[in-house]
Amino acid sequence: MGANPVFDRWYAAKHVRIVVSPTHELETFGSTLVNYRLISQLDDRPDKVRVREGRLEAHQPRVITPKGFSEIVAEGFGEAARGYLEWLKENEDNLRILQYGYHLKSDNFSEQVLTDSLAAVTERVKEEVARSGDRFSAVLQGVDDPWDIALVELWRHEVDRSAKKNIRELCDSGKLF
């Protein structure tokens, strides 16, 4: 990590590339284990590539109902904001938010450093994942340090990708409204 950790985090987040996404969305009524392989070129070593493998556990999405809008007092806000707050107060029983949690599993973590190009290693890892048939495997490219930012980006991507299906299934089951 460099002298500016904030810059390092944003740089790492902007340089994540999801090469292979899981072929199945996150589970609606249970936890999901996403098996990841993160490939990164070692800093200042174009011939060295690190491959990290592990699991990312996405917890079952929880339905959160916001309560307490009626207790909010808005001072110094314009008419539009007060009108919107009034609408929230009137409709708070119908509002729902999905919350996703995740857990990094270190019990299944490994890494290896290979001598090859980033492109060649990435291609081999993609082929291995395709042969495995694992619906919950992901392949990512990212920076070597801070590498775990890529996992947060993977989790965010999978939540975005899965939310529509999760909401539909929760509605169909009567657990959302």
Quickly list its features.
177 residues; alpha+beta; 2 domains; five-stranded mixed beta sheet; two-stranded antiparallel ribbon; 4 helices
Low-confidence stretches: none
Q: What is the residue-mean pLDDT, rounded to a whole number? A: 88
Count of helical stretches:
4
Strand content: 25-35%
Give the oligomeric state: single chain
How far from one another are the termini? 46 Å
Q: Please tell me how large the radius of gyration is.
A: 21 Å
Helix percentage range: 25-40%
- Tally of structural domains: 2
Q: What does this protein look like?
A:
It is a single chain. The N and C termini lie far apart (46 Å). Helices cover 36% and strands 28% of the residues. It folds into two domains: 131 residues, no CATH class; 31 residues, no CATH class. 21% of the residues are buried. With 177 residues, the protein is an alpha+beta fold. The strands form two sheets. It has a five-stranded mixed sheet with strand order 1-7-2-3-6, with helices on both faces.
Question: Secondary structure elements and their pairing?
Answer:
Elements: H1 5-14, E1 17-20, E2 32-41, E3 48-58, E4 62-64, H2 79-91, E5 97-99, E6 102-115, H3 118-132, E7 137-141, H4 149-173
Parallel strand pairs: 2-7
Antiparallel strand pairs: 1-7, 2-3, 3-6, 4-5
